[in-house]
Amino acid sequence: MSALNKDGQHARTNNQATYRDxxxxxxxxxxxxxxxxxxxxxxxxxALLAVAGGLVFFYRSGMxxxxxxxxxxxxxxxxxxxxxxxxxxNRQGKSSGGLSFLSKIPKQFQEGFESYRxxxxxxxxxxxxxxxxxx
Length: 135
Hints:
Elements: H1 12-60, H2 63-82, E1 87-92, E2 96-101, H3 107-134
Antiparallel strand pairs: 1-2
Protein name: Transmembrane protein 188
Keywords: Cytoplasm, Lipid metabolism, Membrane, Nucleus, Transmembrane, Transmembrane helix
Subcellular location: Cytoplasm; Nucleus membrane
């Protein structure tokens, strides 16, 4: 849809301006795409380096051995200390544990402790339920 001038020829000047604008627009789109792809790669690289640096820091700072290794040695270390009292710490599930008695402790004492433990946990649940109701 080009306009005709007096002589019936296409108005090339209008088309030339449109073509020039489209070429400029195309170049800007290419430039924006290139910058966005570059920024995407740059951000990914920085994120990867940050994660890797964090892991190196975690390991080199001693936090790895303090938090991970020590946690794995907790139960055996605890049981070594409790053995003198004829007690043992048994790990149950992922985060909870409980005391148990070695065979030298009389059954009557063990049963009394178990009974008291159940009552204690029932009272604790009741207190928590009462507190939750009041909120």
